[in-house]
Design goal:
Elements (H helix, E strand, L loop, with lengths): L2 H24 L4 E3 L1 E3 L1 E10 L4 E5 L2 E4 L5 E5 L7 E2 L4 E5 L2 H43 L5 H40 L2 E3 L4 E6 L6 E2 L12 E4 L4 E8 H4 L7 E6 L2 E13 L12 E8 L13 E18 L8 E6 L4 E6 L1 E5 L3 E6 L6 E3 L13 E3 L3
Parallel strand pairs: 1-23
Antiparallel strand pairs: 2-22, 3-17, 4-13, 4-17, 5-12, 6-8, 6-11, 7-10, 8-9, 10-12, 13-16, 14-15, 14-17, 15-16, 17-21, 18-19, 18-22, 20-21
Helix pairs in contact: 2-3
């Protein structure tokens, strides 16, 4: 082989290799996609809160004395469990206590005076009755009889007045007791003392009308908890009392709790003009679920509107606008757009009523560049 022929062969091989490399680098590369096989299972139609909900106690009282004064007794501590009617605090009230004792003494004296007056009235009435009978027998004069009858009536009136004075004295005792009670703060229900804003010797005052001040004692009934969450006004009309719900808490991220709708507010909140909501409340189905919960925890509420078992379903993230999906075909390695019909749906799963079959591979990474109808694709291994 001549040197010229050898050179020609080498050049030809290099040209062929260049053409092959150019074709290889210029041909379309398959786009990596995440796919999910269409399967069967339970699908639920749900709605959820638009902003974080809150764990609330069924009873919570932010308490302050009815009158201002110095804290004289504070027999409780934060975190302590108290019973209904238990004394939480007492203001200095020795003057009112003295007034109550004075009223009680006056009532005793008034009662004794009333007894005396009424006994005298009874004697006068008996004397008048005796003279009336004697007058009928013409054994007593008209003057003596009339005088006795008049005296009996006067003393009866005095007895009535004395009895009314006794009732006035009893009313004074009630007023004194009420004034004394205004200086004492009692627990309205069983609960735990969440916060105390005050110390012995400090002066506390009730909140003036229209001006919010810190409560002296914040009392929470920790034996009963529920969830309150804002639901978008568009979804609120779908919710009914008694519907099942799932409760999730940021404090317990790996756990959900069974709930049941207990209340739907009868008005729409307009705090945010562009996000009007309706407050919806849900009870915990199982009492033990909230045994260790704290009032004020943030919570989410997912309300189950309808459920369908053994439904053909796909991940909701695979669904494109106008009920379209991209299906990967192993025959040609390409993505094919397909129109489907859907049924129940939530943020996670969507029911397919037509357009797909069990086992079809739908693309769930639809937001990746190059993922479109007709594109070469390569499924990622999960």
């Amino acid at each position: 082989m001549t040197h010229h022929l050898r050179r020609l062969i080498i050049v030809s091989v290099l040209i062929a290799l260049g053409i092959a490399l150019g074709w290889y680098w210029s041909k379309p590369k398959p786009v990596a996609v995440r796919v999910h096989a269409v399967d069967r299972g339970t699908v639920e139609s749900t709605v959820a809160n638009t902003r974080a909900g809150t764990v609330k106690a069924c009873q919570r009282a932010r308490l302050s004395p009815a009158v201002g004064g110095l804290i004289d007794r504070l027999p409780i501590e934060e975190g302590e469990h108290v019973k209904a009617g238990q004394l939480l605090l007492s203001l200095w009230n020795r003057d009112l206590d003295a007034q109550l004792k004075l009223a009680e003494r006056e009532a005793v004296a008034t009662t004794a005076q009333a007894t005396e007056v009424c006994v005298v009235a009874e004697v006068a009435r008996n004397e008048a009755d005796r003279l009336v009978k004697l007058r009928q027998q013409k054994l007593a004069s008209d003057d003596d009889t009339e005088r006795a009858v008049g005296d009996a009536k006067a003393r009866a009136a005095a007895c009535l007045a004395a009895r009314e004075s006794r009732r006035v004295a009893e009313a004074k005792i009630a007023v004194s007791k009420a004034n004394l009670e205004r200086t004492r703060l009692l627990a309205p229900f069983d609960g735990v003392v969440a916060k105390i804003n005050g110390e012995l010797g400090e002066y506390v005052t009730p909140s003036p009308p229209g001006i919010a001040t810190l409560p002296t004692v914040d009392l929470i009934d920790d034996s009963c908890m529920y969830i309150s969450a804002p639901i978008d006004e568009v979804d609120a009309a779908k919710i009914k009392l008694g519907q099942a719900a799932r409760i999730s808490l940021d404090a317990f991220p790996q756990k959900t709790f069974a709930g049941k709708i207990r209340r739907i507010a009868s008005f729409v909140l307009e705090i945010e003009k562009q996000a009007r909501t309706v407050d919806v409340e849900a009870d915990f189905v199982h009492r033990e679920d909230y045994a260790n919960l704290l009032a004020g925890y943030s919570a989410d509420l997912e309300i189950i509107l309808a459920t369908r078992a053994n439904a053909l379903r796909i991940p909701t993230e695979a669904l494109l606008e106008s009920n379209r999906v991209l299906v990967y075909s192993a025959d040609d390695g390409r993505l094919h757009e397909r129109k489907i019909e859907t049924g129940l749906s939530n943020w996670k799963l969507t029911e397919v009523t037509a357009g797909l079959q069990e086992g079809d591979l739908v693309v769930i990474s639809v937001d990746r560049e190059g993922v479109e109808d007709g594109a070469l694709a390569s499924p990622e291994e999960r």
